[in-house]
Amino acid sequence: MSGAQEFRKSALSALTDEIGVYALCDLDGVPMYVGQSVDGIRSRVRRHLTSARSDIIANRQVDVWEIAYVWAWPVADKLDIEPLEAALFQRFDAQIPLMNGKVLPLKPSPVNEPDRQDIQVIEEGERLRRLRPDQRLERQIRQYGILVDYIQTVKSAPHLKRALDAHFERLVSYHKTFL
Asked: Considering only the top CATH level, what class is 3-129?
């Protein structure tokens, strides 16, 4: 196992495995995807990061290379998961479109937001290397092309086109940083 894999494995072991909501965050600490887990946050995030049984990875919605942080909000009751997920989705999606694809509607009832756990899943030196505009722009262009190809050849669905739009918005910001 490489040093990067060991670091990720160690970092994930510190992540809660309670049920709840999580956000996969990019190299800047900006949420890219908000999800929920009714079988344990650590287990679900691990599947995303290893591409094992993860629709968002299989559908090319999220590039694992870009994930540097995981935020987790464990809850005690399964009934709290969906309202919390919708509230966090609405908050983060308003800042920069998330790659979830589908929009999670906000429920009219108030949401009690539990304390957040933050975990960095790549070493800081590697995160800084990946932040280099030449590295990041090239990778984002490639990921955008992969998602376009997936939509054209495998599945053309509204949620994937929304994810493509989120990629494009990030691509534009990386392009500006590159210049």
From this structure: alpha beta
